Amino acid sequence: NSRGLLLSDPAQVQPFLAALQRALAAAVVARPLVGGDPQDGRIETVADPADTRRQAGKVVHASAGQVQRAVAGARQAQPAWDALGGRARAEILERAADLFERDMPLLVGLCVKEAGKTVANGVGDVREAVDFLRYYATIARADFAGPRLLPGPTGERNEISLHGRGVFACISPWNFPVAIFTGQVAAALAAGNAAIAKPAEQTPLTAFTAVRLLHEAGVPGAVLQFLPGAGPAIGGALVNDPAIDGIVFTGSTEVA
Question: Which of 19, 108, 130, 132 has the lowest tally of Cβ within 10 angstroms?
Answer without folding.
Answer: 19
